Amino acid sequence: MNENAIDSSDGPCVARHINHIAIAVKDIDASLALYGKIFGVSSDDIQYIEDQAVRATLVRIGGSQLELIQPTDADGAIARFIERRGEGLHHICFEVDDLPGTLDRLADHEIELVDREPRQGLSGSIAFLHPRSTGGVLIELVDRQGARR
Fold this sequence. Notes:
Blueprint: E1 15-24, H1 28-39, E2 47-49, E3 54-61, E4 64-71, H2 77-85, E5 88-96, H3 99-108, E6 119-121, E7 124-129, E8 139-143
Parallel strand pairs: 1-4, 5-8
Antiparallel strand pairs: 1-5, 2-3, 3-4, 6-7, 7-8
């Protein structure tokens, strides 16, 4: 191991690995066609996630996953994100053990939480950390127990 590397087991949030990287898109079908053309992947499992106002799918590319998220509400968070920043990287998702306990430890360390309690998401039981506390990056955590891979 690199002697300058930081051991993630020292912090209040022990990330096991990246579950997925999410990309906000205007048209999920066109984006799937693009990634199919580039990487030869496809998905017939596009889900509507009502509380997030998106159509979403996970696509495996090698040992990683991309989550494509398309807004379904012109006034929703993802639509506003695309309007302000355009299509592109939206968030990164890390798998953790004991998501409720991890959220408690993060709150104790004054990390601002979007979700104080886990909720159901496309990849499993999830919660978001606010970008104000994470250097401008929206971070999603998913409980490793039951995470979609």
